[in-house]
Amino acid sequence: METCAKKYGDIFTLQGGLGSLAIVYVSSPKAQQEILTKNNEYETPGSPILKSLLGEKSMLVIEGDRHRRERKLLMPPFHGDRMTKYGELICNLSKQVGSNLKIGETFIARNAMQEITMQVILQAVFGLYDSPRLAEIKPLITNILNVSGSPLRATLIFFPLLQQDLGAWSPWGRYKRQMQRLDELLYAEINERRAQLDPNRTDILTLMLLAEDEAGQGMTNQEIRDELMTMLVAGHETTATALSWALYWVHKQPEVYQKLMQELATLEADIDPMSIFRLPYLTAVCQETLRIYPVAMLTLPRVPTKSVELQGYHVEAGTIIQGSIYLTHQREDLYPEPKKFKPERFLERKFSAYEYLPFGGGTRRCLGMALANFEMRLVLATLMSNFEMALAEDQPVKPQRRGLTLGPKGGVKMIMKGKRMESAKKSPSVATV
Prior knowledge:
Uridine Diphospho-n-acetylenolpyruvylglucosamine Reductase, domain 2, CATH 1.10.630.10, 2 domains, 3-stranded antiparallel β-sheet, 19 helices, 12 strands, about 10% strand
């Protein structure tokens, strides 16, 4: 993408890839806004890859009235007071996972972050705690997500010709059986909770079961199942990856580390999670993390329903267009020295929704954005306030494609140096990087 942008500018076509399709890539904020907001001129085609992974009724693959209805039903659980109820849970889970890391031993940051984000999803979204069903769901989700964990394994998802069920020991056969078992567990949980519906529960599954549209119709079991899968994939893997990058950048740059620790030292012992969420430098660190290497490199594909003019070019109906979030975030006219990690840029100016769009934009913007931002800041603040860590390697960590996302190669190797004493938490100068 960078090579093409340097040679051709803000709009170019790449021929090849999956099925030799020609795909138009755009990166200017104006073009991003056009393809993501003009729903009367563009639509999002249902992706066979996402349908295979998430289901036919996932928000990411439905269109039109169905998409608008589903989004309206799912919006309330992810906003307002609902978020604050998850704050204490997120902080406690972060402390628990950090305490389980052995002092002096190397650990992979991404694995530790996945443990936190998985537990947040299972408890905040599913409302699942210790139970036999939870014990079986957790490893199944991990195994299924690992299918897209590397370019080689992801070929099973990307290329239908490889999707041959040759028995339980074949890669696709194993994947299908794991998905079938996960479905059985999810539907069992949905049916059980529907039969014993408790409106006092605050988990997102309960809120989905209670939701009704204007006609008084609720969500079907399949709709709920597919949205649960979407939250598992989009809200677990991605947040863990972003947190891994955040830990890398904070510990890679001493000046960033010191500024963040100074800000965290101003917090009281029993601080409200919303006060953590509003810390300006912590917010800027997380924003810059999502800018420099956005976990989702591209917007969902958009297809014009009729011929359109886009950045001075005539684009035929049916052409696949993708907004390159990565290239927009690398524009020097928006972000001087774009390869440098500089949180201050987010304190110095405000960027529009199409200049900075790590969660996409328009009606296709990630519904879990509020939860992801909340979780990312709380986890990072909790870990930095309670534990002293260091990078285990000096060489720069490179970004690497992980199936559908972009993550740190190797997952970021770190060393747990120990717990911070109460006095150290208030005095960042005693902490060493």
